[in-house]
Design a protein that fits this description.
The protein has 265 residues and is α/β, with parallel strands linked by helices. The protein has one domain (67-264): Rossmann fold. It is 31% helix and 20% strand. It has helices spanning 15-18, 60-67, 87-92, 139-149, 165-180, 191-197, 204-214, 227-230, 235-245, 260-264, and strands spanning 25-30, 36-41, 74-78, 96-100, 110-111, 126-130, 152-158, 215-223, 252-259. Strands 5-4-3-6-7-9-8 form a seven-stranded mixed beta sheet, sandwiched between helices. Helix 4 (139-149) links the parallel strand 6 and strand 7 (152-158). Helix 4 (139-149) runs parallel beside helix 7 (204-214). The model is unreliable at 1-56 (pLDDT under 50).
């Protein structure tokens, strides 16, 4: 088997010119000491079987790190939440990172502001948005600002309006199983009730339409999502296996895009 990948250090000012995208897949390996090391795999195959080997699931932090050229880069995380999002992981990797959120943690890596209050015009090398864009209103104005701030956008989101009856039935059944086992899943027990309480969220088609109007897609994947609400052992693998079998729909997705305005500029 062979692995061939080139990563080139760059800066905010020449990022869009020097960072050449290919169809890359990435995964996190584990060192003998048990600490994650970020390893890129563009194509892992043998001469007899040219099909790339399936990759292990990635946390969003691992995924973001895998999309970035070598540090140090200046990165903005929008909607980092009260736990800090992926900011600590990016800082530990050597990036100059800023996380913004009205409920951001205290500290020099964070500012307690909304995106519309951000007065830092950059330039940033990348913007990260983990499960936040479906809440943002007005969405078009926010994405205009993100496209102007950095050439690269890395998104983790979910298509809540793609939840069909079999998918909802599996989720609610799994939720009941975990509760019966003495666990306390963070997600709602009833998806019907959750829908009623979140009717203002942007559907997938609206998100993709607004993203594609401002960014050129460089990576996209459908993936499991509900395991983050279920918090039970084996939930992620169970969800992934059911998706692969076609029994339920994938609700989560990851998207990487390059700003059209910055490429044109």
């Amino acid at each position: 088997m062979t692995v061939a990948v080139t990563r080139t250090p760059t800066t905010a000012t020449n990022f869009s010119r020097n960072f050449t995208w290919t169809s890359l897949s990435w995964f996190a390996d584990t060192t003998p000491r048990g600490k994650p090391s970020h390893v890129v795999r563009a194509r892992l195959c043998s001469a007899a079987d040219p099909t790339p080997t399936p990759l292990a699931p990635l946390t969003f932090a691992d995924f973001v790190l895998a999309q970035l050229p070598l540090p140090p880069l200046r990165v903005l995380e929008v909607g980092c939440g009260n736990k800090g999002g992926v900011v600590p992981d990016l800082a530990d990797a050597g990036h100059d990172v800023l996380g913004i959120d009205p409920h951001a943690p205290e500290g020099p890596l964070y500012r307690r502001i909304a995106l519309e209050e951000l007065d830092d015009v950059g330039p940033f090398d990348a913007v990260v948005a983990g499960r936040v864009l479906h809440h943002v209103d007005p969405l078009a104005t926010a994405l205009d600002k993100l496209a102007a701030l950095a050439p690269l956008l890395v998104v983790d989101e979910f298509a809540w309006n793609h939840i069909d009856e079999p998918t909802a039935a599996w989720y609610e059944s799994r939720h009941r199983e975990l509760v019966a086992a003495g666990r306390d899943p963070t997600g709602p027990g009833s998806l019907a009730g959750w829908r009623l309480a979140h009717r203002d969220l942007h559907p997938y088609e609206r998100l993709r339409g607004e993203l594609d109007a401002r960014f050129t897609e460089r990576y996209f994947e459908w993936r499991p999502y509900f395991y983050g609400w279920l918090d039970g052992p084996g939930s992620e693998r169970m969800e992934e296996e059911l998706i692969t079998a076609g029994a339920i729909r994938p609700i989560g997705f990851r998207y990487v895009g390059m700003s059209r305005s910055q490429r044109e500029g």
